[in-house]
Amino acid sequence: MTKYRHNVTKYRSRPPRFALPCSLGAADFTTIALNVTGSKLIVSLDTDANGSVAVGAVGVPGLSLADATPLSATTTDAVVEFKGAKDFSSRIGKTVAFEVKMSRAAMFILRFL
Predict the structure, then answer these.
(1) What pLDDT, on a 0 to 100 scale, did the predictor assign at position 92?
(2) Among 25, 14, 89, 20, which Cα is nearest to 55's?
């Protein structure tokens, strides 16, 4: 069985973007509260063939990690989708922490559009 080491680091880049790199492995973490500046949550990520990333808002019904559709591709500017096509329109101007679950993936940017 192969074991993966990972490091998760938060970098602040151009507001409101945050980089959350993780080596290909697994990581589950919660971000600090971020200011919601748009209705859509955007991520850039890199996964291997069996990898995935799921992102959900902590304490926000309909936008939680359980409601998020996992993403499994290497892409830039992927829109995080939720059951019922919900978005962050009602949360603009408020702060939200995000729960992230990654498996064999790296997420580089988390921002709003």
Answers:
(1) 97
(2) 20
